[in-house]
Amino acid sequence: MSGAHTHAPIDQRLLSLLVCPVTKGPLTYNADTNELISQKAQLAFPIRDGIPVMLPEEARHLED
After folding, report:
1. Under 8 Å between Cβ of 8 and 49
2. Domain count, the chain
3. Per the record, GO CC terms (predicted)?
4. Using one digit for the tens of pLDDT, what is the confidence trace for 8-61?
């Protein structure tokens, strides 16, 4: 099925291996926004088609 982006759940084993590219700190998965969150860097990294996009320039800055 091609077309719309789906919110495929991220593999928990993959999540445990990933760290924030800015702080090297832990990430948490936000299912509502389908993003990986770095609290320390205040960035939200998008997940597109089940693949985390770990580029700081693609990340969304979190609101305080």
Report:
1. yes
2. 1
3. cytosol
4. 667 778 778 899 999 999 999 999 999 999 999 999 999 998 889 999 999 999
